[in-house]
Amino acid sequence: MTHTISRGKGSRTIRTAVAIGAATLGLVALSACEKPTPRATVTVGSDSVSTEAACYEDGATISQEKVLSCAEEETDTSITVDEGDLLRIGVDPEIAEEGWVLFLDGQPAVTDKIGKTYRSFSGDAFFRDGESKSAQLSIVEYDGSEYHGVWNFELKKASEG
């Protein structure tokens, strides 16, 4: 007696189901990936650090309370600033298009909206009391009436002597 294994309709159905399952799994995996936020960069001399947003709503509004809370979040993105150093801030064009302001240690510091991708400041301006060893700089995307994102950097004062 001879036995034959059929590779008819049932086999095709299983292959189709497996293919559909794999395609569905691939789409689920892709949808789990988040689009990265725009980046902001701080440069002092030849040192440069860059980060994604601590808080960001792509085109949507963030409440002032959330902005203040985000601007106080600790960050591990830091750069050392020496006396007299020029601190350069760069933002992605989409941030510049909306405009941005600066917060220092969770409080508004430069409130005139900046609409360029690049701006320079004296590093001394970020250590107000002369005794601080660090300051938190927050770049806040602000279109003049609504907030959209916050990027945080720790500025470390260069050790004296």
TrEMBL record:
<protein>
    <submittedName>
        <fullName>DUF2771 domain-containing protein</fullName>
    </submittedName>
</protein>
